[in-house]
Amino acid sequence: MIQTPEQVDLILLALPIETLPKTAPRTISRLQATGIKTYGDLLEYYPFRYNDFSITSQIGNVQAGETVTVRGNLESIKTVPTRKRITIQKAVLRDETGVIELVWYNQGYLTNTLTPGSVVSVSGVVESQGKKKSMKPMEYELLATADSKTKHTGRIVPVYPTIYGLSSKTILEKIFFVLDLLSHANESIELIPEDILKEHGLMGLQKAYETIHQPTTMREVSEARRRLGFNELFIRILSSKMIKERWSKEQTTAPIKLTSDDKKRVQEFIKNLPFVLTDAQKRVTEEVLEDIQKTVAMNRFLQGDVGSGKTVVATIAAYATHLQKRQTLIMAPTEILALQHFATISALTKNTDLKVALQTGAHKDITSQKKAGEYDLIVGTHALISAKYDFRDVALVIIDEQHRFGVKQRALLKKKGINPHLLSMTATPIPRTVTLTLYSELDLSVIDELPVGRKAIKTYLTPTAKRADGYRWIEKQIKEEKTQAYIICPLIETSEKESMSSIKAVKAEYEHLKKNIFPMLKVGLLHGRMKAKEKEQTMAEFNAHTYDILVSTSVVEVGVDVPNATIMLIEGSERYGLAQLHQLRGRVGRAEKQSYCLLFTTSNNYNPSRLRFFAKTHSGLKLSEFDLKTRGPGEIYGTQQHGYSDLKIADLSDTNQVFSAKKAVDQLLKNYSVDELPKLNAIMRSYQINLIEKN
Ligand code: ADP
Ligand code: MG
After folding, report:
1. Could you tell me if 74 and 92 are in contact, meaning their C-beta atoms sit under 8 angstroms apart?
2. Tens digit of pLDDT for each residue in 372-405?
3. CATH of the domain spanning 260-447, picked from 3.40.50.720, 3.90.1510.10, 3.10.560.10, 3.40.50.300
4. How far apart are CA 98 and CA 145, in angstroms?
5. Residue 275: CB within 6 Å of ligand 1?
6. pLDDT band at residue 592, thresholds of 50, 70 and 90?
7. Which in 17, 212, 376, 420 has the greatest CB count within 10 A?
8. Cα–Cα distance, 324 to 327 (Å, whole number)
9. Level-2 CATH architecture, domain 458-639
């Protein structure tokens, strides 16, 4: 056990919490269960608020109504029974200036801990009846001597989120113990060189930990938060950059060397597409084609709002790859989307010799190792990455609608002995601060314009009183305009998977709509628990206009493309994040016809300004920035994929903070070598190992 100051140095923060003195094994296992494994983790367990008990007074001077801390000798303490099931503990506290009565309820054990003669400090609001003063202490502590230091009273006291079975007070004790050790350590824990800290006006790391846990004024707390948030961002950004740097050295691959003839054929392919590429599509295609010809494996992240036309970019890249007789895998998050990509890509490439396979749970073109070699492009779900067949020569892997395809998947592919170029695509617009912090190991391509002729989707927040009118209007549109509509049922739970109750709800809604609201129309049903074949069939039928209306859970959220559908009705829209609503809305407006989005709500208990903002805003990026500010990053992407959950204190909506952390990283990389900064180096290593394990 580390106790003497000489033994205490940098490794202190890496010490496991099992070495905490005077700590019950149960306390340790509870801390560990919340992810607190080391002393350093304890220091990063931050208070969520503070009790200001910093005003201390002599007992004779206290005023009724003030929140104050007094200390003195306990003269007496006793438990007074009452007629109800309540007990009262009454004590008298005295100093040289006077006495005050202390009153607790139902804290019988106090008569054992606070014994007459002990020195006690209490904080609370003073009450008075005539000359007699009393207090119901909010906090108390037993002191060794009359001038002992206090922890829980007489200062600004941090309040920690309680952990099951552990009070804020216990957590505080452990954190203060570590801070005390640290104050005796002979080496600094600082990670960032002095000059960089100075330029960004940041306090030292140790000071920041001390301040956030033991502030003397509330003003300092915000300075400490700034430093600690900066630290988190700094570590992440630096880590991403180092991964990128390492990739650029290690990830060598056989380049896809396009001959001038190949390049001509690619241009011809583009010319023969049924539409003209937008400038943004051209630019991004260029970026991708350039990358795949390099010997360093591509790590590109393609962002483009719904409907911006990412699929065709992927197709062109696959086409170029096949000209060099090499294979491309395209992976989609669901079978429906895989099927749809397969259909789209097959159509786009029908006049070429590129051979496309579909490989999903329900549909398998590839049934043998031999067949695996026959195709140029294999479309499937994310399961393709661990497919049982070895594809001939995979040079390009494209992943649709999955965030943070990167570190871990790379490792997986490498294990299979391939090191392809990687392109991940997403329609979820990601605020710049987030891209910068969490994705900076990837190169970014952005499609920032929609094909010409697209009209903004007219979006209406429909009050409950207008519900019936809304339905009649949809019916009329369907009859007169021969259009189709989606009706999305509310999210029952916030979980990303569909629960049984959501399925039940969508079925009931489907029956209700079919019978009572739209008896004259053809209504279809789609949800996540249907068999893959049934889903495929339903989508195909909707696409073929067998149904006028498709009632669905939010499974149609990403990627589905039925150009004739122009109406999107979203039930319970108040429960969705705006980025998610935007995805849903993006299912319509995919051709030149005017499209509409109706927002229905299931309760009246919501803030309409969010939805109004949504109705008038058509930029996905603006919407996700709004989400980031008002609901936090988890809302934009669900909670698992992105590893934000471990951002403890940094605020990604604080643009200044993010940019200054990025600048600091650049400064560090320019003027220092991380290898020569042992503390930072150690952190980087453990951080990157974590990143790989978690993702
Ligand atoms: P997303 O980026 O959301 O995946 P898609 O690739 O599904 O978008 O494209 C949306 C629709 O727009 C498709 O029907 C596609 O054929 C069409 N499209 C793509 N690019 C263009 C373009 N440059 N001009 C016209 N239509 C286009
Ligand atoms: Mg798509």
Report:
1. yes
2. 889 999 999 877 877 778 776 899 999 987 655 5
3. 3.40.50.300
4. 19
5. yes
6. confident
7. 420
8. 9
9. 3-Layer(aba) Sandwich (3.40)
